[in-house]
Amino acid sequence: MNKSMNKSPITTHILDTSTGKPAENVTVKLFVHTNNDWQLIAQGKTNSDGRITDWLNTDVAFATYKLVFDLDSYYENQPTPAFYPEAQITFRLQDQKHHHIPLLLSPFGYSTYRGS
């Protein structure tokens, strides 16, 4: 990765599509798949803009990664309880570009895409 980047090589954000607002204070864990097992390499909470941009300050390997979003804790403070207690997004790093993995969230579903 390009070490001159001032943010993590892997970033994420959460937009609550039911409110049109970022999901703040959500715990997100980042794992890498090595030796047939998942290893936790970073953990953080989304900021007021629903983002985590600073949890890794090192290069990352071409590998399979997984983000795990703790949705139960977020929905404890929302009018509608969560149907999904967590969301998991598994993805591969296959190039040296920045990888931004957003989560679009509602109480009864979620989706994702490769952002920029």
TrEMBL record:
Where's the Transthyretin/hydroxyisourate hydrolase domain? 5-115
Q: Do you know which InterPro entries this protein is assigned to?
A: Hydroxyisourate_hydrolase, Thyroxine_BS, Transthyretin/HIU_hydrolase, Transthyretin/HIU_hydrolase_d, Transthyretin/HIU_hydrolase_sf
The gene designation is uraH
Q: What is this protein called?
A: 5-hydroxyisourate hydrolase
| CDD domains recorded | TLP_HIUase
Keyword terms of this UniProt record: Hydrolase, Purine metabolism
Summarize the subunit comment.
Homotetramer.
Q: Which family does it belong to?
A: Belongs to the transthyretin family. 5-hydroxyisourate hydrolase subfamily.
Q: This protein's superkingdom? A: Bacteria
**A single GO molecular function term of this UniProt record:** hydroxyisourate hydrolase activity
According to its UniProt record, this protein's enzyme class is hydrolase
EC number(s) from the headed UniProt entry = 3.5.2.17
| Function of the protein | Catalyzes the hydrolysis of 5-hydroxyisourate (HIU) to 2-oxo-4-hydroxy-4-carboxy-5-ureidoimidazoline (OHCU).
Query: What reactions does this protein catalyze?
Result: 5-hydroxyisourate + H2O = 5-hydroxy-2-oxo-4-ureido-2,5-dihydro-1H-imidazole-5-carboxylate + H(+)
Check the record and name the Pfam families matching this protein.
Transthyretin (PF00576)
What PANTHER family has UniProt attached to this entry? 5-HYDROXYISOURATE HYDROLASE (PTHR10395:SF7), URICASE AND TRANSTHYRETIN-RELATED (PTHR10395)
